[in-house]
Design brief:
Blueprint: H1 5-11, H2 15-28, H3 33-46, H4 50-62, H5 64-72, H6 74-80, E1 91-96, E2 101-106, H7 115-118, H8 123-126, H9 128-136, H10 138-144, E3 154-159, E4 164-169, H11 181-185, H12 190-194
Parallel strand pairs: 1-4, 2-3
Helix pairs in contact: 4-5, 5-6, 9-10
Bound molecules: fe (iii) ion.
Length: 199
Amino acid sequence: MTMTTGDRSAATATMAQRVEAIQSLLDERGLGATAIAQELDHQAQDEWLPRNGARVVARAWVDAAFRGRLLADGRSAVAELGLSMPKHHRHLVVLENSATVHNVICCTLCSCTAFTLIGLPPDWYKDLEYRARIVRQSRTVLREMGLDLPPEMEVRVWDTTADTRYMVLPLRPPGTEGWSEERLASIVTRDALIGVARP
Ligand code: FE
């Protein structure tokens, strides 16, 4: 008997069903997959948030010595604020925007970010369209996303790897003199940390 395409697709479990099947098999063998998944979900929802990166930026804006340490060794500097990164994020390279240089990050291969500081990557960051075009048409893509940079501004695109993660240090906006660190942090968004927006 020949099986039709329709029969085959009807027999294929959905992604959710397959995840559940693998999870329950791991649980049965005492590997605690459900507990691990719940913990990761909790971290992703409640701990890995862009406000972590925003705190780092605000501190760098008000404390020049911290900014120096942050640019020299990002991983050690964020630890001063009680922020951690997974072991395999071996390097945090902080990219400082200036009056003449604008930085933007991507992962051309997949979706890597410094997620404990920036939050989990948004859908558009994982999209093939962004990953391919931000490299070749960065100025145009940034304009499409609402960031129209002057032609004389140099744009640098940084491609994340498994062990080197990036975070943009945006320019402190004029008119924020005398603001508290907390207030400064409140204007730094996930998109600004990626480099597709400015505070
Ligand atoms: Fe990736």
